């Protein structure tokens, strides 16, 4: 099972429980900065700066390595919550790229719509 599939399962399981209070974004970010595994190598999750071209093969390898780090992160769900609330345009967040986050949002919207029908 992939890291993102495990995170999705955890997210779905947590949604079925009593909703937890929503932390302010600044508190979520502080928690990620203190406990996130990505703090040891932030460039792995963000990639090179905007003025540097990253070959596709290198980007894929970097994203795969970042996802592996996310698998063992103690604040992966908080990271996913932060990413879903802020809609980042780059980086790897809880094992998801911005494109993956958009797909997850669309999947959740479709499931909610199906349940409402």
TrEMBL record:
Keyword ATP-binding: no
Sections of the chain in a coiled coil: none
Cofactor annotation: [4Fe-4S] cluster
UniProt-listed InterPro entries: 4FE4S_WBL, Whib
Domain 4Fe-4S Wbl-type residues, every copy: 37-103
Compartmental location: Cytoplasm
Keyword presence, Transmembrane: no
Key words, A-Z: 4Fe-4S, Cytoplasm, Disulfide bond, DNA-binding, Iron, Iron-sulfur, Metal-binding, Transcription, Transcription regulation
Main location: cytoplasm
Binding site for [4Fe-4S] cluster: 38, 70, 73, 79
Post-translational note: Upon Fe-S cluster removal intramolecular disulfide bonds are formed. The Fe-S cluster can be nitrosylated by nitric oxide (NO).
Free-text remark on how the cofactor is bound: Binds 1 [4Fe-4S] cluster per subunit. Following nitrosylation of the [4Fe-4S] cluster binds 1 [4Fe-8(NO)] cluster per subunit.
Membrane-spanning ranges: none
A Pfam family matched in the record: Whib
Family under the similarity heading: Belongs to the WhiB family.
Function: Acts as a transcriptional regulator. Probably redox-responsive. The apo- but not holo-form probably binds DNA.
Name of this protein: Transcriptional regulator WhiB
Organism of this sequence: Actinocorallia aurantiaca
Gene behind the chain: whiB
């Amino acid at each position: 099972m992939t890291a993102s599939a495990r995170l999705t399962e955890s997210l779905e399981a947590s949604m079925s429980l009593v909703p937890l209070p929503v932390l302010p974004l600044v508190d979520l970010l502080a928690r990620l900065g203190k406990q996130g595994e990505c703090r040891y190598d932030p460039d792995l999750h963000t990639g090179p700066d905007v003025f540097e071209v990253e070959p596709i093969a290198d980007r894929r390898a970097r994203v795969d390595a970042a996802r592996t780090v996310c698998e063992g992160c103690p604040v992966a769900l908080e990271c996913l919550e932060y990413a879903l609330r802020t809609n980042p345009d780059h980086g790897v967040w809880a094992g998801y790229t911005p494109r993956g986050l958009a797909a997850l949002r669309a999947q959740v919207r479709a499931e909610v719509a199906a349940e409402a029908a």
